[in-house]
Amino acid sequence: MTPLDFVVSLALTSIAGGVIGSLVGLGGGVVIVPVLTLIYGVTIRLAIGASIVSVIATSSGAASAYVREKMTNLRAGMFLEIATTTGAVSGAYLTTVLPGRALFLLFGIVLAYSAVATYRKRHSTEPLTVSHDRIANYFNLHGSYYDSAEGKEISYKVVHSQLGLGLMYIAGMVSALLGIGSGALKVPAMDSAMHLPMKVSTATSNFMIGVTAAASAGVYFIRGQIDPVIAAPVAAGVLLGAVFGAKVLPRITSKSVRVAFVIVLVIVSLEMLQRGVFPAGFHSAVMGNR
Amino acid sequence: MTPAEAEAMEEKIRKVEIAISLVLRIGVTLSVLVIAVGLGIMFAHHGDYTSITGKFSYKKLTTSSTPFPHSVHGLVRSIEHGDGRGIVVLGIFLLILTPVLRVAVGVLSFIYERDLPMTLVTLFVLAVLIGSFFLAGA
To answer: Which of A20, A246, B74, B129 is least surrounded by CB atoms within 10 angstroms?
Structure first.
């Protein structure tokens, strides 16, 4: 395969990554990382660098469309960014200290659990109408959005903002440590813990993952993990896909978004477990090192 | 809050959201253009990269030992030499900056809404983001 074939085929795959990533709020990395490592045989180091780029591309591409639909809760997103960005900065410096293998195993299990928890919640989509959360009330983190699938304006209240902050700090750390998985913790934190509606959670997660990824992107760049030949088609393809995904989201039901999220979460969880078991990458474990 | 005040507030928030969305679009479009130009230059300089069934494998460009700019100094030098990959990295840089820019616009918008708590929150996030680039040694 010549570089041109590589760039073109990867750009096309990245479009799919952008659509899926923006719908479920996890970023294009969930598709890009396995495709790069399993199909193209790219080392995990560079795949993670490309993932960080794809997360920013998903976020910026989708957010420009979501914000207009009022799907994103900007106030809650920005408030929670306090925790994710500090988490990301601390995480970027913990990579050398913490054993990556154990982390992958741990988060593989955590994500599998949150997939189950999110799936169980699939029938209860009624948003809250009152909140006694003093922080959420002080910063006025509550909101409303127009749901095209249900054909009405939906108002909701936010609760448990302290728990949300704690989970977001961990999400930021994970994002910096593992390169993926930040949205996978952000969506359940907002959906399950803080009671934001599912679609608002994925849209707000999309908004946030870009900011979180930007906080660790500098470190990835300096470490030489952002290879332009990989990152260019990924960035362009994912951007295109994300804009499309963002246009679709308002029209599909919260339940479908939730089910899609659970499926992707299960895959990400398996991916992490696999990386904990085969640290050199599944590809080289199966195909041998060339 | 009276209904009129609530409506005025709503209108302000709306304006801010549209401004943020516009900033994002400009940043994203610009970065894609720069990336495309960089890729074009790279392929134009290396004839063996572009054939559909050539012997030159993409793997030579996508391993950990492949040389590509990964410091600000190296990036500047690579762009000065007209290296396509340097220009691609510049485009990626612009993309990485879009979320930072978004937060910066957020600060201005919360000032415009006269929302002190959220202004401080957003300023803090912006400071961490900018700090992270310096901490990285970039």
So the answer is: B74
Chain B: closest CA distance from residue A270 (Å): 25
Is the pLDDT higher at B9 or at A248?
Answer: A248
Q: Which H, E and C letters describe chain A, residue by residue?
A: CCHHHHHHHHHHHHHHHHHHHHHHCCCCHHHHHHHHHHHCCCCHHHHHHHHHHHHHHHHHHHHHHHHHHCCCCHHHHHHHHHHHHHHHHHHHHHCCCCCHHHHHHHHHHHHHHHHHHHHHHHHCCCCCCCCCCHHHHHCCCCEEEEECCCCEEEEECCCCHHHHHHHHHHHHHHHHHHCCCHHHHHHHHHHHHCCCCHHHHHHHHHHHHHHHHHHHHHHHHHCCCCCHHHHHHHHHHHHHHHHHHHHHHHHCCHHHHHHHHHHHHHHHHHHHHHHHHCCCCHHHHHHCCC
pLDDT digits (tens, 9 = 90+) for A118-149: 787 766 667 777 777 888 888 888 888 888 77
- In chain B, whose CA is at the least distance from the CA of A3? B58
Q: Which of A142, A136, A140 is nearest to A160 (CA)?
A: A136
Q: How far apart are the first and last CA of chain B?
A: 47
Q: B39: buried, middle or exposed (CB in 10 Å: 19+, 13-18, 0-12)?
A: buried
From residue A100, give the alpha-carbon distance in Å to each of A86, A92, A95, A104, A223: 20, 12, 7, 6, 16
Q: Which residues of chain A lie closer than 8 angstroms to B59, CB-CB?
A: 41
Please tell me the distance from the alpha carbon of residue A5 to that of residue A219, in angstroms, as a whole number. 30
pTM, two decimals, is 0.84
Query: Could you give the CA distance from residue B112 to residue A166 in angstroms, rounded to a whole number?
Result: 29
The interface residues of chain A toward chain B in range 6-35, judged by CB-CB distance below 8 A, are 6-7
Residue from A140, A137, A145, A155 nearest A202 by CA: A145
pLDDT tens readout for residues A210-259: 888 888 888 888 888 888 889 999 999 999 999 888 888 878 888 888 88
How far apart CA B6 and CA A90 sit, in angstroms, is: 40
